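Just scan my protein:

. . .
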Amino acid sequence: MQKLKLKDFLPALLLALICGICVFLLAGTNALTKERIAKQEAEGAKERQLTIFPDARSFEPFHYSDEIASELDARGIRPDEVYVAYDPDGKVLGYIFVNSGFGYAGQIVTTTGIGTDGTIVMVIATAASDTPKLGKEVEGRPFLDGFTGLSTDTEYVVNKNVKAVSGATISSRAATGCINRAREAYLLFVERGLIQ
């Protein structure tokens, strides 16, 4: 029987060393860029909020109880984030709901503004990882403007009351699903007296 020598294990040891160095470098890169990425994401969120409610002076997180959170979860409509938009006098201008879902090839995030009268003020969508020239087209104003002015009382259905992006029906449905979840969460908040 042949004895194993150190040189027999050398390729495996070398590979393990290279993997260890890569992990160390990735962790270091993450540590160095984490704050900058978080800052850019916060600035992007603020920009989207101001685009929807340009007259707002501040956007405060909307708080609700664990009981309401459980009900939202049970219905599958819990938003990722909710904010209240206030004007300079402290009057509520409306609400912003951030929801995410999976499109054709990637994550779609919608930021939906709902006015105090229960109508959609504006929707902004980002589909950074979806298919270019197809799924990413749900970011465009022609599709998203189809929601502006719609009442939250009605469920939005692609190619019924909202026109899908040509060639991107799956991503259009995903974005519409996110907006519907925002609408349903808004209606639940109204029903529970959290929004007047």
User: Anything to note?
Assistant: The longest strand covers residues 92-102.
